[in-house]
Amino acid sequence: MAARERFLVTGSAGCIGSWAMHLLSRDGVEVVGFDLATDHRRVRLLTDQQGSMRFVQGDITDTEVVLGVVAREGITHIVHLAALQIPFCQADPIGGARVNVVGTVNILESARRSDVAGLSYASSVAVYGPPDLYPDGVRDDSPLAPSTLYGAYKQANERSARVYAADYGVSSVCLRPCSVYGPGRDQGLTSAPTQAMVAAAAETPFHIPFGGGSTFQHAGEVARLFIEAARAEAEGAHVYNLGGPSVSIAEVVSLISAEAPGAQITSGDQALPLPDQYDGAGLDRLLGGVEYLSMEEGVATSISAFRELLSAGLIDPPV
């Protein structure tokens, strides 16, 4: 760990970005949030204290702006989370490529030109193909076969990082989250289980439109792992899957009902077109051990948090 740390979190208005801002500020670390959005409502779900946070509005696709903020702010570590998710990339392929691909190259270039000690960035399990391609399970080096533009863009970023490491000596750690849940997770393909938890806390019905299973990670622990991965300052370009509890959507519904008796939560039958179990051993080795919340604890703490947020008028039940 550097003697003096100054973090840049891109996508700081998003779910994981807001958690990263909160965790770093809570620990007294200087942190600059970078996002095109100026609405920091997700941060306000986590804390009413700004602490050591600063926010800079900027466009991740603007090379000179990105280079400038990293150099001007004296950034030592970057957590790069700025991205457009699956539905947005499908609706606007060119905009999705600019944000997800060009934006990531801008971050890699800023690390190349400035004194950045550690860089972590987000990929996704969307780089993988359908479950039948992986009869022996999914490892960090399993074949990639994205079926969405979002997944294709994330695969391009992983390859770009490898070239930056080989040609320019820019080191990075890439993490592939799966189904992220918890406070702040209010959009994206796999946000439905979180919306179901909000609905249960509000005592309103909700239908999760898919079934099958998935590997789940709480947004707070995902943010923590991105911070730790940046601090690892590992040489070269590394790519790791996140582990965590692999459970069925039916089990998630059952856990929600146990925590909120009388909750009217249902789910569909069709599974997501992705594997449901991932080997997180690589990241475990890098960080010297990774612990994930059990699904029972994650659902319980999330519903408890949503009850408080609903009572305070900071969130609304899903429509």
What is this entry, summarized?
The protein has helices at residues 15-26, 41-46, 63-72, 86-91, 93-113, 149-168, 192-202, 219-232, 249-259, 281-287, 295-311; strands at residues 6-10, 30-35, 53-57, 77-80, 118-122, 172-176, 179-181, 206-208, 213-218, 237-241, 246-248, 265-267. It is an alpha/beta fold and 319 residues long.
Strand order of the largest sheet: 3-2-1-4-5-6-10
The number of distinct β-strands equals 12
Largest sheet: 7 strands, parallel
As residue ranges, the low-confidence spans are none
Radius of gyration: 19 Å
What coarse outline follows from CA principal-axis ratios? globular
The count of helical stretches stands at: 11
Taking all residues together, what is the mean pLDDT? Answer: 95
Percent of residues in β-strands: 15-25%
Order of helices and strands: EHEHEHEHHEHEEHEEHEEHEHH
Oligomer: single chain
Distance between the termini: 45 Å
Helix content: 40-55%
What would you call the structural class? alpha/beta
